[in-house]
Amino acid sequence: MAIMKIARMGHPVLRRAAAPVADPTAPEIARLIADMTETMMDAQGAGLAAPQVHVARRLVIFHTPPAKPCR
Fold it and tell me: How far apart are the first and last CA of the chain?
């Protein structure tokens, strides 16, 4: 896995239309998801879209922490 560079607001990659993911089970998509997850955790984020890491694909991941018990 690798930490990817995150595009800053205003970067042209964020303005382009992203392509669909043809085969969600493809090994390269699994690698992309693993790298995006590591990148998101490293940045202490809650979600990340593929264009944010310079990949023009329609893919988004997000993390929801476990619910805290009610008091």
Answer: 39
Q: What are the CA-CA distances from residue 33 to residues 43, 53, 67, 71 (Å)?
A: 15, 11, 24, 36
Report field, pTM of the whole predicted structure over 0.85: yes
Residues whose CB falls within 8 Å of the CB of residue 51, separated by 6 or more in sequence, listed in order: 7, 13, 14, 16, 18, 57
Cβ contact 61:33 at 8 Å:
yes
What are the tens digits of pLDDT across the range 9-42? 999 999 999 999 999 999 999 999 999 999 999 9
Per-residue burial over 31-45, b if 16 or more Cβ lie within 10 Å, else e, is ebeebbeebbeeeee
Residue 22: left (phi > 0), alpha (psi -120 to 50), or beta?
alpha
